[in-house]
Amino acid sequence: MSHTFYIAMSYGIAGLISLCLIAWVWLDGRARRRELAQLEAAGIRRRSATSPAPEGGKA
């Protein structure tokens, strides 16, 4: 085994792992957005969403 082969394999494996992590995060983000859309369609809102003030005047 030459040093060049070892270095090339190290870069290749690191690149492959990086691409796998990027794909995983991207696919997981799509799944979470889909889940949020389903929840919002069902009438469930996020706590951070603004809601109308109650009748008493204080939020």
From TrEMBL:
It comes from Rhizobium soli. The chain crosses the membrane at residues 6-27. It is a single-pass membrane protein. One of its GO terms (cellular component) is plasma membrane. One of its GO terms (biological process) is heme transport. Keywords: Cell inner membrane, Cell membrane, Cytochrome c-type biogenesis, Membrane, Transmembrane, Transmembrane helix, Transport. Belongs to the CcmD/CycX/HelD family. The keyword GTP-binding does not apply. This is Heme exporter protein D. Required for the export of heme to the periplasm for the biogenesis of c-type cytochromes. NCBIfam families: cytochro_ccmD. It is found in: Cell inner membrane.
